[in-house]
Design goal:
Chain lengths: ~170, ~350
C-alpha cells in the first residue's frame, strides 16, 4: 500500500519553493490556455496543485501564494477579479484543515480529501458569483469538471512526487 | 522543537492571513461588478494578456495540433461520402457537357449559315503582372509587355478565369492594367442572355457595383455577367463574374478573376468598332408633327435605339461627367458610353 507522507524537512528549501511555484504557474497556464477543442471540461489543475503542495508541505504554499495565483488566473481567464483568488484560498484552507486526515492515508482517503477541497472551491465559487452580482449558471460541464478533478488527482499527485524525488526533495512516499 | 505558544501564535497568524485574504478577494469581487467596474481592471487584464500571449500560444500549440488531427480524421472518414457525392456530380456534369458540346456545334452551324461575324481576336500576348504600389490608380497592375509586343491602350486583359481589366498606359517594355475593381473603372456589361444591361462600376472593393441596370427583365441572383461590347470598350461576351446582392443592398459582381491570384495574363489585341466619319452620315429628315401622346412614344423608341443603357442611365449620369465627355469627343455619346469612359485615367 502506497502511503503519502511529507517530503523530509532537510530538503533544500529554495529548490522546493521553486518547484512548487513553477508547477503552480504551469498549471495556471495550462488551465488558462485557449482550448481549440471548444468547451471541454478539464480538471482544475491549479486547485489540485495548491491542494497537493499545501498537504505535502504547507510552508511551500502559503495562503498569499494561493491568493495571488488566483488573481493571476482571474486576469488570464477574464473571470471577475477575486473569483479564483477566493477559490484557491478555499482550496488551500481546506487542504490545511484536511491535512492531518489525508497525510499518510491511503488513496481513497486522499481522493476524498481532494473531493473536500473541490467542494470548498465550488462553495467559494457560489459566494464569489453572488458577490460579483453574476448569475450562477451551474451546468453539467462544471459538475463533470469537479468530478474529473477528483478522479485525475492521483495522476497529478504521482507526477509531483516523482518531480520532488527527482529534484532531491526526499522520498515523498513510503 | 516547536514551543506550544509559538505553534498557537502561528496558527492564529495563519487564520488571520486567510481571513484577511478572503476579505480582500470579496472586496475585489464587489468592485468588479458589471455595473461599476473600474477601468483599471480592464487595463490590467489587457496588459496581462499582452504579457501572457506568447506563452499562451506556445501552450495551446499542442492542443491546436490535436484539433488539426481531429479535423483531418473527420475529413478522412468523410472521404467515402465525398467520393460518392463527387461521382454523382460528375455523372450529372457529363450530361451537361454533352449538351453543351451539342449546342456549341448547333450554334456554330447557325453562325456559319447566317454568316455571323465573330470577335476578331488575333493571337493573345502572354504576360506576367505584378502589383503596383504608388501608381496613379489604387487597383492596377504592371505588365512585363509593352510597345515591344504591340500592346496598346484599351486592350482587354484576362486570366484563364475571366476579365481582369484593360490596358491604360503603355511604355516600351511595360504597361499598366487598370483593374475592374478600381474606382475609376467603368465597363458596359450585360447578363449572359443579353436581356439586362448595366455598367460595372469599380469602387475599390473586390466586388464592383452594377449601376444603371435596365432591360426586359430584372437582374437575378446568380446571373452570369459578361461584357456587352457597348461603347467599344471591350469585345462582347468576355466573362466577368456572377451578380448578387450584398449586405449593402447593392447589386455587385463576384469576379471570376478574383478566385485566384492575378499573375500570368493574356492581353488580347482588340480594335473597337470605329464610328463612321461625320461626313458619311446621311442627314435624317425630322419626323412629321404628330399628337403629343405619339410624340412621347416616338421619343422613347428613339432613346432605346440610341442607348442600350436606357434613359435611366442618362438621368443618373453626373451632369459634369457627361458634359466633359461630350466636349472631349465632339459628338454625342450614349449613356453607357459616357459611363464607360467617365473617369478613365482620372485617379482618385
Amino acid at each position: 500500500m502506497i502511503r503519502v507522507r511529507p517530503f523530509e524537512a532537510e530538503s533544500p528549501t529554495s529548490m522546493a519553493v521553486i518547484i512548487a511555484m513553477v508547477t503552480l504557474a504551469a498549471s495556471i497556464l495550462l488551465f488558462a490556455a485557449p482550448r481549440p477543442l471548444g468547451p471541454v471540461p478539464i480538471p482544475l489543475l491549479p486547485v489540485m496543485t495548491v491542494y497537493f503542495w499545501t498537504v505535502a508541505r504547507p510552508s511551500l504554499m502559503p495562503a498569499a501564494a494561493a491568493f495571488f495565483a488566483g488573481l493571476a488566473m482571474d486576469l488570464l481567464t477574464w473571470t471577475p477579479m477575486g473569483f479564483w483568488a477566493l477559490g484557491l484560498l478555499a482550496a488551500s484552507g481546506a487542504a490545511r484543515i484536511l491535512r492531518p486526515y489525508v497525510l499518510g492515508a491511503d488513496l481513497w482517503r486522499r481522493m476524498a480529501g481532494m473531493a473536500g477541497a473541490t467542494a470548498a472551491v465550488a462553495v467559494a465559487g457560489l459566494i464569489a458569483f453572488g458577490a460579483a452580482d453574476r448569475p450562477v449558471q451551474a451546468t453539467w460541464l462544471q459538475l463533470v469538471q469537479l468530478i474529473l478533478t477528483v478522479l485525475t488527482y492521483p495522476v497529478l499527485e504521482a507526477a509531483f512526487f516523482a518531480l520532488g524525488r527527482g529534484a532531491g526533495l526526499g522520498r515523498g512516499r513510503a | 522543537m516547536i514551543e506550544p505558544g509559538s505553534w498557537r501564535r502561528r496558527t492564529r497568524w495563519t487564520r488571520l492571513t486567510y481571513g484577511l485574504l478572503a476579505v480582500a478577494a470579496i472586496v475585489l469581487l464587489l468592485l468588479d461588478r458589471p455595473a461599476a467596474r473600474p477601468a483599471f481592471f480592464d487595463t490590467l487584464r489587457a496588459g496581462s494578456d499582452d504579457l501572457a500571449a506568447p506563452v499562451m500560444s506556445g501552450v495551446s500549440a499542442p492542443l491546436s495540433g490535436i484539433r488539426s488531427l481531429r479535423e483531418n480524421l473527420k475529413e478522412h472518414w468523410a472521404v467515402h461520402d465525398q467520393n460518392e457525392a463527387l461521382r454523382a456530380r460528375l455523372e450529372e456534369m457529363e450530361g451537361w457537357r454533352d449538351l453543351a458540346l451539342s449546342l456549341r456545334d448547333t450554334v456554330s452551324a447557325y453562325e456559319a449559315i447566317l454568316e455571323v461575324p465573330g470577335v476578331a481576336f488575333v493571337d493573345p500576348v502572354v504576360a506576367w503582372t505584378v502589383a503596383e504600389s504608388g501608381g496613379p490608380f489604387q487597383h492596377a497592375r504592371l505588365m512585363t509587355v509593352g510597345k515591344d509586343k504591340n500592346v496598346k491602350p484599351g486592350y482587354p486583359v484576362l486570366t484563364d478565369r475571366g476579365l481582369v481589366g484593360r490596358v491604360v498606359s503603355v511604355a516600351e517594355r511595360s504597361s499598366r492594367v487598370l483593374l475592374l475593381t478600381d474606382s475609376t473603372s467603368r465597363v458596359p456589361v450585360m447578363t449572359e442572355d443579353g436581356e439586362v444591361r448595366s455598367v460595372l462600376w469599380g469602387d475599390n472593393t473586390n466586388a464592383p457595383k452594377l449601376e444603371f441596370a435596365s432591360g426586359s427583365r430584372r437582374m437575378a441572383e446568380g446571373d452570369r455577367i459578361v461584357t456587352s461590347g457597348d461603347a467599344g470598350v471591350f469585345p462582347r461576351g468576355l466573362p466577368i463574374g456572377v451578380a448578387g446582392v450584398t449586405g449593402d443592398e447593392l447589386w455587385r459582381v463576384a469576379l471570376y478573376s478574383d478566385s485566384e491570384p492575378i499573375d500570368a495574363v493574356w492581353v488580347y489585341p482588340y480594335e473597337p468598332i470605329a464610328p463612321p466619319p461625320p461626313e458619311a452620315v446621311t442627314p435624317v429628315a425630322p419626323p412629321p408633327a404628330e399628337p403629343a401622346a405619339d410624340e412621347t412614344a416616338a421619343d422613347d423608341a428613339a432613346g432605346d435605339e440610341e442607348s442600350p443603357g436606357g434613359a435611366d442611365a442618362a438621368d443618373a449620369l453626373p451632369a459634369d461627367a457627361a458634359a466633359a465627355e461630350g466636349e472631349a469627343d465632339g459628338e454625342a455619346e450614349t449613356p453607357v458610353q459616357q459611363a464607360a469612359t467617365a473617369g478613365e485615367g482620372q485617379p482618385e
